[in-house]
Queue: 2 jobs
Job 1
Amino acid sequence: IEPMREPWALWPDGGLRLIGVPAAITLDPGTLEFRINSKDVTSSLLESNLDSLLSSETVELRPVPAVTLEDVLSRIPARIKIPLLKTDTQGTDLAVLMSAGSQLRRVDKVHTEMIFDKAYETKGPGPMSSEQEFDDYMKSMGFVRESKEIDPVYRKWFATVYYICLLYTSD
């Protein structure tokens, strides 16, 4: 699931079991403004906080379709297992997981990102959530935390920890 069209050109066009969904995931489906930032990796549904070292200036507001994760997962036949769900949604990861509703219970493991740095302005449920909020919600959905780690790629580059990865397993 990727709301930015630019990465689609880099993905393989055949031979893999890859189904792309050109949309954003949110609690409120419809059409939303996606902020394309000067550093693509910081593009988000959330407004950048320019006081953060991680943020970058928004250069384009792009309307994108938005669906819930429940909409996506419910289209996968029940007979197909979902061994891993990974989120990296630039500050909205908990809201994305919440949007899965009861479909989240079909997933064996969830690998998600939690940003410590206030890289984005916060509004509504889920954005820039705390570690405790992640743990509480995931526990309510039948998951236990398996691990917490600094993303190994960024561990090499940043002296300060800006975000961590959390891995949950269904119990």
Job 2
Amino acid sequence: GAAIKGIGAAARWERLEASFTVLLANGEKAKKLLKEIDDFATDAGFGEESIASTAKRMLALGFEAEKVVPTLKILSDATYALGSGEETLAQLARSFGMIQNKAKLSSLEIRLMSSAGLPAIKMLADALGKTVPETFQMIEKGAISSKVAIEALLTGIQKRYGGTTEALSQT
């Protein structure tokens, strides 16, 4: 019964800790990040394993450990505001990871975010002070760096959806 489930959870936690230790090449950093992930998953109402899996993918795609949970918090606001769940959060995180892993933003990531319901091109255009068509042209020319894209999109999400996760956790 419950004891067996507890043993299974402990074993999964150990595997997660080992995996994060390898990804971060630092056991203490891994424990700290897993604690942050656990706290976030609990506060946001997401499954710990799902969030840990998304976080691992973000690390593998080049996110710094210190930015994983803050980024997940911002993306969870969008996810909840869009009426979606863990799958959408993972899709948005994967899109941001793809951007992180490249030097320039491509239309593929914009399409992935849009398919998740996020008006990414509009947020990006607003942040850049451009029209949507001008922003598309900039993307096609490779004129938007990954750093600028990530900052602009995260800022846009915060402006539009900031606080949604916290508000829903209070209900």
